[in-house]
Write a structure and sequence with these properties.
single chain; two-stranded antiparallel ribbon; 5% strand
Length: 291
């Protein structure tokens, strides 16, 4: 059974790490949900497509990316990535060559693909505005009104590209933190995010410490199953394993709660998440944006 990463000692936690994690976790899960829906509720296919797509976004015309490299970027088994890459090629979304796979040019320019990038941009904009409101960022909207239709501006594309890189980094981090069991990491993240969702935009959300257990609301396995678009039995199995490991507990029939104690055990993950978000700020500033 996969276990969480053990702590050899309490890591030094940046001052704003916990409030930043609370405010950005919803963005992370919303973006994964978007990519999953695009691939017909197939989570791993959505992640593989996102990794190939990001390769084009970062370096247009760079060509195919190898399956082994995709496996490294997603921290997923080679055979898992290869199987989903083949399925994407058969569906006409990607093309497979000896060098790897690439997004079909017509798919890159399609209305549906542009719509996904636009949604990623607006999702990221919302996150950056919330972080700025909480005093954790200094984001300024790029010039020009953001349109729900038409092409994105270069600044908006830069934001969508940077945030996709943030998503990939978050996926890799979860894989490391949960010893390669990405689904368990996602179930854990979805549980604790739902536990504190009601305080995300309130004063307690900016607390620089782990929120006390009395502020956490239970969430059902069914709700997590729906939010992650995963089979109920899959989520239930991972939830039971998390309970057995002491990383969450059941509040009678009301649902599951990740206690403050579990967050303290995973302090290294909070530090890594903080680093991922601050790296996003650096990339946005390199693109000429204020964050």
């Amino acid at each position: 059974m996969s276990q969480h990463t053990a702590q050899n000692g309490p890591p030094e936690i940046p001052r704003d790490a916990y409030p930043m994690a609370r405010l950005t976790s919803e963005f992370f899960l919303r973006s994964i949900d978007l990519l999953t829906r695009v691939q017909g509720d197939k989570l791993i296919s959505g992640l593989v497509f996102m990794a190939v797509w990001h390769n084009h976004m970062k370096a247009p015309g760079s060509g195919a990316v190898g399956v082994r490299e995709l496996s490294r970027r997603l921290n997923l088994p080679y055979e898992t990535v290869r199987r989903h890459a083949v399925a994407l090629a058969r569906a006409g979304q990607c093309t497979a060559t000896r060098d790897g796979i690439a997004v079909v040019p017509s798919v890159l320019k399609s209305r549906a693909n542009v719509a996904v990038m636009r949604k990623l941009y607006f999702n990221t904009e919302r996150m950056l505005v919330e972080l700025t409101r909480a005093g954790l960022a200094k984001f300024q909207l790029p010039p020009g009104a953001a349109s729900r239709r038409g092409n994105l501006t270069p600044a908006q594309i830069a934001i969508a590209t940077a945030s996709t890189g943030q998503l990939l980094a978050g996926i890799r981090m979860l894989g490391d933190l949960w010893h390669g069991d990405l689904l368990r990491g996602l179930v854990f993240t979805a549980i604790w995010t739902a536990n504190v969702k009601h305080v995300t935009n309130t004063a307690p959300a900016v607390s620089q410490t782990v929120l006390p257990d009395e502020l956490r609301l239970p969430v059902s396995v069914l709700a997590i199953s729906s939010s992650l678009r995963l089979p109920y039995e899959t989520v239930r199995r991972h939830a039971l394993a998390l309970e057995k490991a002491g990383m969450c507990h059941r509040v009678r029939r009301r649902g599951l709660v990740v206690p403050a104690e579990a967050h303290l055990k995973l302090a290294s993950g909070t530090v890594q998440a903080h680093g991922i978000v601050t790296a996003l700020f650096v990339e946005l500033r390199r693109a000429g944006l204020k964050a």
